[in-house]
Amino acid sequence: MKLSRMLAMAKKEVMHILRDPFTIIMSIGFPIILVIYFGFAIDFDFRGVKLAVYDSDNTRQSRELANVFFSSGYFKLEKGMYPEKMTKEIELEKDFGTIIIPPGFGRKIASRKESAVQILVDGTDNQKTSIVGRYIGSMQKAVASRFSDAAPQSPVDIRVRYLYNPELNTQWFIVPGLIVVVIGLLGIFMTALTVSKEWENGSMELLLSTPVKPLEIILGKIIPYVAISLAGSSLVYLIARLVFGVPFVGSHFLLICAVLIYIVASLAQGILISVTLRQQNKATQAALILGILPSLLLSGLIFPIESMPMFFRGVASILPARWFMIIIRGLFLKGSTFTELSLPFSMLVLLSLIPIIIASKKFKRDLEQ
Amino acid sequence: MNGKAMNAVELNKLTVKFGDFAAVKDLTLSVEKGEIFGFLGANGAGKTTAIRVMCGLLLPTSGDVRIAGLDFSRGKNAIKRKVGYMSQKFTLYDDLTVLENLNFKASMRKIPDETAKQRFEQIFDFIGFNSGQNTMVRELASGVKQQVSLAATLVHNPEILFLDEPTSGVSPAMRAKFWLLIRKLAAEGKTVFVTTHYMDEAEECDRIALMRAGKLIALRSPQQLKDETYPSGMPLSGKKPTLEDVFIKLVEGDER
Description:
- By secondary structure, chain A is mostly helical.
- Chain A folds into two domains: 3-41 and 169-368, no CATH class; 50-163, abc type-2 transporter like domain (abc type-2 transporter like fold).
- Helices cover 66% and strands 5% of the residues of chain A.
- In chain A, strands 2-1-3-4 form a four-stranded mixed sheet, with helices on both faces.
- The longest helix of chain A has 30 residues, at 214-243.
- The relative contact order of chain A is 0.11.
- Chain B contains nine helices and nine strands.
- Chain B has helices at residues 47-54, 76-82, 98-108, 113-127, 142-154, 172-187, 199-203, 222-229, 243-252; strands spanning 9-18, 21-31, 36-41, 62-67, 83-86, 160-164, 191-195, 207-212, 215-220.
- In chain B, a hairpin with a 2-residue loop joins strand 1 and strand 2 (21-31).
- In chain B, helix 8 (222-229) packs across helix 9.
- The longest helix of chain B is centred in the C-terminal third of the chain and has 16 residues, at 172-187.
């Protein structure tokens, strides 16, 4: 291994990058666009869900019931509902659901009999439905205290307090996790192209006709992308902290270590793809499937791994993205220590070593053919 | 070791197999120092494979290979230092300038900056390059690109040059200029091992090796080849045969 050759390789790679505006735009623009999309567009907190009321009782009590809902802040009233319009409106997405108050509701309440109210809810978007369903469930208690004179009769009073993210702020949860996607894309995607580019335009022959060693080529090519990925993740970190006010309670040292290991893991995957496929268009597709999709879908960024079927939990657990996500969330919100994160850290190291070893072995064998 | 005793290239029963397929079979030939050696054959005849072995890019399956007196026992890199390889495909980087390409090549060969600088001047002077060293390679005409490729091949002052179809896709005037350079290189004592599909270029070689399906089928000077293949002129017209006639008969197995 000669340092000078590796550095010359890196220098050449930097020149390629600097002359290709696409790479630069991608490395700065992508993190920003991603954070804007996910940070502003995805919000699991629903406010002002539109509910209609079909009040066939029309008493003081029935109006009070509706009021309990609409004063909570979660729901917004859509007035004037008739039975024949009920499902139509939901179908047209004019409102999300309808509260049906049966005749005699007020009378039953007044005479302290058990009364029932039905709520029809749009079940198409089950993500939204399950969250709205929880809001509706939480109305039960408010309704009970409204209509009984005494305090609600419950032997146990269960109170939930959310730790680490007391207001269940979606952005706190999503934005730090975007570091995983940014590195996944910049690292895997860009490096996947670099070696295949050399094969494709024949310059690999030029490299091979010199005494350069496989490891010098690989490391030389990786170095500039380490810097790019590091810059991209720093950008996400800064936006998370400054724009979204996400707290960071953990150790920055651990964060940097994790980011570096994950960058190496991603670059190694990219190199492995590049070395194997040798064609840029194939390498791009493979990078999309192996790099972007898993880091979006199977990392736990949006969809919880725990609720996935066994098979996908297995797949997720061999992806560095999943373990890196645990570390990121642990560091940002919980302030986890290294001991607490030792499993994800060891998995991350292990899963980075595997592609590096395979890639350099395969590359070496190809060259010696 | 003196020049007379040591050939630039010595192959003895060189065989290269890819799986069951033998791309080169029992190739035996030797090239003298300072010789311009033409390597001819149809596409897929095994020329490039043989050259890649001689440049230290590929290990032979069997047979002896001696390049500038070196065999593979000291590793491929010893050979790579002695030879210059200009591959069939254009291998320089389009988005780098001429000088950046050469600098990169020099750094891969660990040539000190000062030495490299002097060397580039000599080379540019030698090949008569005047298109601007800071031009992006992608902006050069194809003939000029080939010149720069040759320059990159000469960076480490190799003893033996392997030029794989150096003039394909180049204009006739540029080809003539390129061959002037080849003769100049040979006059300087460098051995030039060249493949081509142009018969006028083959005429320029001291000796020609004809390959067919991985095997050597003839190894003679251009004149000998013509005389021996058609001792009494062309069968139909009685005209003097050209190298093209010889090539068609020997390599493609057709007469005309």
